[in-house]
Structure to design on (369 residues):
């Protein structure tokens, strides 16, 4: 029998099945589902727990079969967990799991943990035996469009909420952008919010301060310093990130994403969209909105085109390519890209026909020193 994760709590409240099979690639949700089943098992008297991890082709399946049939010396009921990290028990394992399911004891509850299984694996004989013997739950990642609602639900569970209307939706969208693809990080940030602030409504500034105050804090703040025209601060941050061993790829992504977003917002405005709508469509939130609002009038179309080209060249250098007019070392190239953007936002747009933007970095570099 297949269940969705949101149905699990109601199912457990009605009684337990002998076998639960969890498969998927979202570790937080799989861990939480396993915790819920284990708690229900303990409440039902399954006090003794045994864990078997299938590691390689030489796993002793007879030990598992024997444990399931043996009477417990310390408790009336057992909880047995079978972990199959590779998702493929092999021929012997397939036969053993089918025999296991055919001789289930009322005193044993079993949880089987698997990674994400493809269609062929889900149609295998061993998986079908597990499904027929109990409950299977597929643990899928939370999609980006569903992530704000997921975050709101988790906030509500800890007594917190965001503002009503568009302001709250922007807060949730900002939060989702920062933790997309990593629910473990999202869970940690939610716990941080619970520790930092009391129950009740959370403002955007509170969420922003907490969520950005992580290991990548300075990387995100680098773009703000550049857009604000703070040359000395931006260069100090670059030097600090380099000294701390930060990945040049991540730093480039932060700068390039600002350049791409500026280009997208500029194009939206040219198509007649109002500025708030252009910001929402391009996921520009909080402090970045005020910074973009300041610098957008300073950037001409040809300047943005040169910046996009510079970001592309820098991307190649960071990944090991060479360019005759750019430094060979990735961090020197990142410094030039930052200086190009700093110069563009620090002065009115240059008319067409002037010196190309890509050659303007050395002057500003000397001024920054």
């Amino acid at each position: 029998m297949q269940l969705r994760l949101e149905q699990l709590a109601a199912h457990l409240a009605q009684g337990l099945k002998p076998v639960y099979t969890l498969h998927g690639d979202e570790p937080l949700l799989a861990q939480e589902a396993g915790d819920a089943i284990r708690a229900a098992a303990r409440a039902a008297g399954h006090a003794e727990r045994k864990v078997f991890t299938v590691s390689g082709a030489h796993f002793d399946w007879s030990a598992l079969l024997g444990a399931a049939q043996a009477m417990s010396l310390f408790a009336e009921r057992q909880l047995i967990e079978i972990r199959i990290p590779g998702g493929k028990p092999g021929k012997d394992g397939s036969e053993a799991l089918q025999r296991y399911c055919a001789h289930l004891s009322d005193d044993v509850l079993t949880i089987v943990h698997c990674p994400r299984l493809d269609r062929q694996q889900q149609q295998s004989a061993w998986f079908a035996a597990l499904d027929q013997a109990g409950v299977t739950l597929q643990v899928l990642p939370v999609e980006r469009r569903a992530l704000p609602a997921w975050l709101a639900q988790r906030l509500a569970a800890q007594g917190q909420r965001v503002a009503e209307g568009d302001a709250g939706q922007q807060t949730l969208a900002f939060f989702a952008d920062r933790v997309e693809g990593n629910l473990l990080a999202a869970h940690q940030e939610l716990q941080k919010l619970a520790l930092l602030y009391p129950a009740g409504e959370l403002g955007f500034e509170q969420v922003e301060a907490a969520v950005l105050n992580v290991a990548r804090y300075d990387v995100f703040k680098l773009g703000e310093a550049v857009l604000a025209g703070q040359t000395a601060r931006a260069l100090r941050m670059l030097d600090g990130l380099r000294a701390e061993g930060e990945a040049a790829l991540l730093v480039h992504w932060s700068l390039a994403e600002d350049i791409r977003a500026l280009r997208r917002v500029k194009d939206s405005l040219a198509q007649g969209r109002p500025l708030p709508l252009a910001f929402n469509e391009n996921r520009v939130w909080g402090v970045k909105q005020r910074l973009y609002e300041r610098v957008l009038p300073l950037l001409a179309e040809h300047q943005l085109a040169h910046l996009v080209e510079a970001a592309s060249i820098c991307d190649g250098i960071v990944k090991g390519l060479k360019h005759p007019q750019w430094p060979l070392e990735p961090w020197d190239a990142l410094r030039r890209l930052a200086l190009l953007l700093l110069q563009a936002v620090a002065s009115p747009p240059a008319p067409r026909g002037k010196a190309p933007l890509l050659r303007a970095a050395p002057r500003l570099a000397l001024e920054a020193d």
About this structure: The two ends are 68 Å apart (CA to CA). Residues 145-212 form a domain with the Helicase, Ruva Protein; domain 3 fold (CATH 1.10.8.60).
